[in-house]
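Sequence in, structure out. Go.
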Amino acid sequence: MEENKTQEPVEPEKENLLDKAKKLLDKADDFIDDKVEDVKKSEAFRKVKETYDKAEDYVEDKIEDLKESGVKEKLASFADKVEDKAEDAVEKIKEFGKKAAVKTADKLEDIAENIKKKAADDEKPESV
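Output:
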């Protein structure tokens, strides 16, 4: 029986603590709301909000200017031109490489023929 008696008073105390906690939370919430309103009414908040709005407008204007200026299209066009010129340069380098290889091969053949002739000329006087 004593257990039942001790349990009954504990429950009202818990409810009282819970009610007190709720009241305290409500008061804190009201206090915070009041302070937020006070801050919103302050001169500093108004100036910060104006500055923020101006900065937002400025950024939006600059973004719009970039879109209207066609930078993206200009960059794409520039990239296409660079790609075309690079392809042309690569083709010219390939052609130059082929021509240089042919000329080098011709020179090497000429040198080889000259060496053969000299070798043949050197052998003829010895055998005479």
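Check: The chain has two domains: 1-69, 71-128. Residues 1-69 form one domain.
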